[in-house]
Amino acid sequence: MTTARRLLRRLRVALVPGGGQALALAALAALLAAALVSAPLFLAAAEEGAWLGERARTDEADLGAVLDTTTVPTSGAPSPARIGRAGELDEGVTAAVAAAGLPDPRLQVRLREPLLAEGPGGLTGLELLSRTGWEEQVDFVAGGPGDGVAVPRRLAEATGLVPGGVLEATSAQGLPVSLPVTGVYAEPVAPLPAYWAEQASLFVPRIRKVTGLPIPRPPVLLAPREVVLGTATELQVDLFLQWRVAVPDSIGTDGARDVLARVDGLRDALADPASPVGRLTAQEDVARPTPRSGLGDALVAVDDTVALLRSPVRAVGAGAGLTALVLVGAWAGHRVRRREDELRLLLARGGSPVRAAGQAVREALLPVLAGTAAGAAAGWLLVRQFGPAPRFPAGTLPPAAAVLSAGALAGLAVLALTTALLVARLDRGGRPAPARLPWLAVTAAVTAVVAVPAVAGAAPGPAGGEGGDGGGLGVLPLLLPLPVAAVVAGLLTAGLSRVGRGAGRRLPAPAFLAVRRVAAASGTSRLVVVTTAVSLGLVVHATTLAGSAERTMDAKAAVAAGAETVVPLLRRTDEPGPAPAGTALVSTETGVTLSPGDLDTDLLALDPAEVAGVLRWDDGLADRPVRDVLDALAGYRGDRVPVLLAGPLPDDALGAPGTDLVLTRVRSYTLPLEVVGRVAAFPGQPSRTPLVVADRGAVEAVLAAGGRDPVQLLDRQVWAGTPPGVLLPELEAGGHAFDRETVTTAGAFAARPAARAQLWSLEYLRAVGLAAGALGLLGVVLHALAQQRRRRVAAVLLARAGLRRRSADLAVALETGLLAGLGAAVAVAVALPASALVVRLLDPDPGVLPGPVLAVPAGTLAVVAAGVAAVAGVSAVLAARARRTADAGLVVRGAP
Length: 896
Description:
This protein is α+β, with helices and mostly antiparallel strands. The protein is 54% helix and 14% strand.
């Protein structure tokens, strides 16, 4: 046992000779690994997060595959056998779906024409429908499913039908059919369950426009597939057939791509003329079912999001990795300085810089490996916990492992190179040192190059695309405040020695010591100010950009969609019923002319009282509350049409003061206007074109007085505070016609790939920036400890000269606070103006008002100030502890 312990001890001494140094190197390696691995992991999580977002906002019925057909012949004479072969067609499609590896399809089949049956009020139309799994989706009040039909309760009560009875019906051509009744069910009511949501037109009553009373839909008879097919064959009534293939709930992007590939394979299989479905549809001259799916569009949005994220995330990750490599190099330099005497002795005995570098790599191998593993685990946990999604696609591990390996090798290479160069300098003897790189001038040149696009206002090209729009975040805006902060901090520290001469002579001893030490501006003190300015500058810059992007996104989303759900209505010859309760009906018109300036504008006419309950408002759109804005419209008592003007307007658009304004639609109408307010933008404004927001009642009164019908002249929209799943069935019940493709929701703008990529990339930058800020403040603390060790002799002499411990501790706190405070002041002074320049470039959709909004991060500034104060206090405490543990006699005897 003793021998084993000795071997382990020798192995530890050989591989990890310095415990504290090894721990510091392991921490730096962990930082390097976490920074590098977070980029590919964040992109992978963003892919999953984008997919989850697309799935959440896309109706499941649209996301899955849908196949439609009918037995109606496409051309020529109909085949008498086509209806009877519908079951064969279903079996062929089901087999093709199974062969493609997709879930079992849900079949829906119904008669193309309703059946007719005698009722108390005469003939009643009946819909005959079969849907896979319908038996579990209705509540039976009597009987149950079987080899017959289930009738709705209202039909059973009106006709006296009961389970075991027979429903006598006829086709539209007068052919009779007898259908056994097996059950009575309660009809689903709005809001319909998800299973029946696609069948709202069959179950949700329409609203009578005059009385507002519901008009019941024709009763729906539910039956097994065989009953519907047999009835259609017996009566020779054509069928509508539909198959739906659902996307499994638990799949990620990999599963979604696999499903899409299988749907494409299914499409090719059904298109094959030699397939059973191809032969049958050709023989019977019916339409071949072809799958359609919104899954492809969803995955395109996912890919666009990742493409826009890739460049900024990689740039930030690479920058963080380079910073960590610089710290590894600094650690290597510190190691050489601590072992300078030992290394000089080895050089005198014939050693070489290469051998010293090899020894450094051997000692650093285990700490680097351990730190890399810990950093990889930390990066994985942090991205999984706080990233866009808690899971990653398959194939994420290999590229992340490759990045980790490259980072570990780069860290060892930097360590070896730094050691070799510094040992070579020790070996130079009396030869002159090589010329130093003028880092301040080089950094100033880099700053000028980086700042040109931001100052000029040129938008960075989006990753993976061309042009300046689309929300892509270039690399240069991310780097802008860093070189600027470095240059300003370098110039400031370079002038400290001149400014500080003679300063502080009348100050108390602690303040005098702190000021003189800072004014001395040693190389390490200058480096502390520069690194603190850069790290805290990144914190302020990142939080400003992220907060500004969020504010901009909120404002644009409010303008892009006036309410939670916006439904443009189609014009109809018959007027529908009233809009659902709690909604607002607005009228719109594009391409109207505002005179006397002949300015092209858009018109939005609304009822202020109706809109107040559903309007999505952002406080940045006006200089007064939304209630006051709407009251200006509602409270007008003049004889003109009160309007708000929204958006940018030329100076001459309104003419001279006192000029009457009119809004004209060529050969249609003219509205006399009275401007009661101006706003930067208004919810529902479709573009940057100026918008005239008018009182709808006043507009309709003017149009009616001119003999024009507002319903036929103006487009109309329904604004509601409820989601589409609740609103759309209510609109259908009221007889309102609309296209589901044009329905807009409040979350649609933020779900755009450009908007989503911009927000996520800035969130990633903010996370890296916060880590950099914490690291920078930690560096200030370590610098204070190093200074205390370097000043041990001076501390002993000052104590013997009468400087009390409390004064010495206060001097350390003041010195550290001044260094950190200078860095923080430079960071704030540089980062806020730089961020104001960059924010102008962060517009995910310049076509939507308002423009980018600057949000000053007051909370972050307070945290930075608190961090500086905390660093000063911690440094003083740690320095005092180090001073108390030092033996004054040994310190003085060991002094040179």
